[in-house]
């Protein structure tokens, strides 16, 4: 593997990287802010964005800021950090190639904790602090006030770490929304420290007035939620005008539109003819990402078992869920789409149907634009005389604005080569890979060059390739999945996720004994994350996950619920 990091050397008993002879970048840390810092990663960010802080300006698109990253180990309080100017960067790899000119510069320190895991490995990772494992917002991380400089090669730069991200306040309960946090015994044992799972719980109308009623459970999977989303008991804020612009959807007034949808959902929720059920959004951020992908993993631990056998039974007991597999359903989009299908496949008896929208790759022959089993390199299509970069992100017309290589090099600069960036490709690697000899996830491909490791790819296939697992085990899985699998994806998904859905559909449509009896549907020219309604734009349907699949769920309940289940309002009375 190409060595891309200069090695910092301990000189005497004071930690520091020896300053580059041509250019010294000195970062001074306020001792009070650096309290408890021992290990971490320092990011040096150059930006020309005049509106956002540099820490919020790093992205996959062409307007990204420039970031360089280096690890710090065994930091001694009170000492400066001399940033190694040979550290790897994104999008420009070497600081020597950074164009001279005016920049806003910021230094940022990601603090690591030491975990002594039950598997015998000791690892240093950033821990979620209630923000969803987002390094730029993690309470306790420290950074410098953005500083404007006129950069010249060889100049001396001095930055002062004088800011700290404050703690996050816990959400308060309301009549309809409750907040749950439990210590997971399974995860605490694995990580060698107390680990917690949380959930935001939306209770049905009449919950307090009908103490003998028990309800089905709808599990809305997705990224880390700071509260239950899309539910609002008051009309939209009248101060919101039509000048609010959504760059993602290209429309004005989207903030007000979102609030109106949330209020409309509340009006439906309390109406006398609306179905009664419990809906939850789960908090399972971890040292690698904003959620765990809701399955067991060698690197993350038994999150699948912890969620299914610890958290969900706890919620059902506290809030009168029915507590049986026929009364649990799964849905979500993107990461949540993969989770919905994966949990249904991994725990087929514990759930009665999944609705997977725009799922992360569910067939690794189309891992975005890579075939992990046949391609030799993730970043390049290679021929005898030339090679071409693989695309990573496109719009609905097919215009490409990011390559897989660039997307991975961004993670490499932010987190280094030990799967620590907290970003998309790193979490896939953390969830799906075996543990390496060093205790960190074994790379699916070399993060710098893109060379694929076929042994790791085979491990991924046997354990997390959902199409492969269903096909391999259909004789036993098929009867348990019949009628439960529903998949939706835009045919111009920005991350090419529709390609894996096509391959999965090919398998599902040829299933026998039994036929899968579910649904796969595509949105014409629809981008990420189309979730199944061809009559409305995605910027509306993405706000309706909690109501979109109720007709299909009703059909499923009519087929599988016991006779004492009230099909009119979806309640089961227990005296």
UniProtKB/TrEMBL annotation:
**What GO terms are given for molecular function?**
hydrolase activity
Signal peptide span = 1-24
Q: Name one Pfam family in it.
A: Esterase
Q: Does the keyword Magnesium apply?
A: no
Q: Is Hydrolase given among the entry's keywords?
A: yes
Provide this UniProt record's keywords sorted from A to Z.
Hydrolase, Signal
Superkingdom assignment: Bacteria
The cross-references to PANTHER family, in alphabetical order and at most eight, read:
ENTEROCHELIN ESTERASE-RELATED, IRON(III) ENTEROBACTIN ESTERASE
Q: What is this protein called?
A: Alpha/beta hydrolase-fold protein
